[in-house]
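Running this now, will post back.
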Amino acid sequence: MLALARDFRDESEALHDLVAPLDDKALDQPTAFKNWTIATVIRHLHIWNLAAKMSLKADGSFERYYAVLAERQKQGARLPDFEIEWLNGLTGTKLVSAWKDGFEVTAEHFASADPAARVKWAGPDMSVRSSLTARLMETWAHGQEIYDVLGNVRQNKDRIRNIVVLGNNTYSWTFKVRGEEAPAPRPYLKLTAPSGAIWTYNDPSAEEVIEGLGEEFCQVVTQTRNIVDTGLKVTGTNARMWMSKAQCFAGAAEPPPPPGTRLTKKT
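Update: finished.
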């Protein structure tokens, strides 16, 4: 867990370095994700990092938090509205500071936890390792809309391998959440890491294969890019079906962004 906790902290730190120079006005600029502002994104990451820490404590605090969320949603509250209520209107640079303190503490708590222990979450229970992997994935995925709106080309590190593994492991989930049966075989992955290393997964195949940059595979499975806006080479019916709707995150089925809508802004 120590290495995973370090990866989560480092990815959070990289995003913090990007947003720390922004003033309150700059933090209020909308992104291409549901028109959320940068502050909305940071608030979302902050509150769910705190929720993950609550679930790790296993003292009932997560269940109480989630019960309040469920009740507010029944009353018609949108998730961003609830999140700003829960944090008493925290926004701007004070929010960024609180998020930084929060992810550092969350990383510290998870670093010494049993990776196989089970924790409560919004859906089914999950392992401690899966819980922190999800926090890393969401930080990286939601971070993309911030990099994009600021016109900053992200310099990824090999810690995105955690997201590659999650994306591959959720192959069946992409179909299940849509009421479909996952076709076999699962495509062969041959991806190039930011360091230049080659990452391979699943049985080698020339008929069903996805090749290209690991970061672009991560963008597709987290739905921060449409497959046509990447340079991934996709061969085979199963591979094309997967990449057309890949979804590595929980919740209801979500369509990928339309082509050309999630790109790094030119400055």
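DSSP finds eleven helices and six strands in the chain. More later if anyone needs it.
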